[in-house]
Amino acid sequence: RYRIDGVEVQGRPAGIPLADAGTASRYFSLAPGKRVLTASITNARGVESKPVRVEVDVKPNEKMPALHLLAVGVTNYRDHSLSQGVQFAAADAAAVADSFAARGQGLFSQVNIRRLPDRQATKSNIEATIAELAQQAAPQDVFIVYLAGHGVAFDGEYHFVPWEARYTNEQALRKQSLNQQQLRDLLKMIPAEKTLVILDTCNSGAFSLAGRGLDEKRALDRLSRLTGRAIIAASTAKQMALEGHEGHGVFTYALLQGLQGQADHNKNQLIEVGELADHIEQLVPEITLKRWGYEQFPIRDLKGSSFAVGRRP
User: What would the DSSP string read from start to end of 206-261?
Assistant: First the structure.
């Protein structure tokens, strides 16, 4: 199990024998700056060894970083009973992709955007697209995954519900969803140190799994801790998911406003992850209190130093 600055990356598959000398080796491409690498081994029971640790100082690369973004949004599920409460998801994903594409001009060497709306947002397509983008990404790049639709917590683990899922019973939904371990494995494939996961998915109360709000928050917190990736996530009640705000889900509305420049609190003309999280954390409770009479609080867990995701218009 390998980690770079605490972020888990793909390790060596189990069952492959060591070299004749009893050693294993791996080459890493690293982003510029001081980096800490650790390597550990787990046995069949999942018990992890004390990690081997090494510090390196990587010389700066003059090449501008690229931006890689996957925007997934499911409004019209195959099972129409799941479509309640996510009426803005596909449109929100499109708006987020457009906004990041516009804000990335001049900041990144290229902006690589992939979109998976509605019936394209199958579990296999999401997995294949993240794997494809991961192959194109370099350590110094920025990588963003945005998922909008239904998110569910099962036994303390986060699940994203893809387009083709059918809610015949809870066990079937669990099996058809993209679960926490699968998401974790996908994120481990991404070499980009600056990775942000944005989830506008916590509205499962809309299809009779009500009462799981705190479970979802705990599951998202656990997902962030396990992957070591920065996460900003919504916490959306049924009423807010149905009505939205200004044609968007409340969380994504705040995200888009931040990308339009409102999040540039230090006035350096850049939209940074920390500023974006601050803006969302401040604006979402204000909107929900004014419109629905109670405050709704997003989830945030940012890893390492903040980084720019766009340039202020």
Answer: GGT-TT-HHHHHHHHHHHHHHH--EEEE----HHHHHH-BTTB-HHHHHHHHIIII
Locus of tokens 């997003």? 298
For residue 22, give every residue at least 6 positions away whose Cβ sits within 8 Å of its Cβ, in sequence order, or none: none
Which residues, listed in sequence order, are joined to residue 148 by a DSSP beta bridge? 73, 200
pTM: 0.80
Report pLDDT digits (tens) over 212-224: 455 566 666 666 6
3-state secondary structure 114-133: EEEEHHHCCHHHHHHHHHHH
Give pLDDT tens digits for 268-309.
Answer: 999 999 999 999 999 999 999 999 898 888 888 887 668 899
Q: How far apart are CA 276 and CA 273, in angstroms?
A: 5
Q: Please give the helix or strand (H or E) that residue 188 lies within, else none.
A: helix 180-188
Quick count: other Cβ atoms within 10 Å of Cβ 259? 24
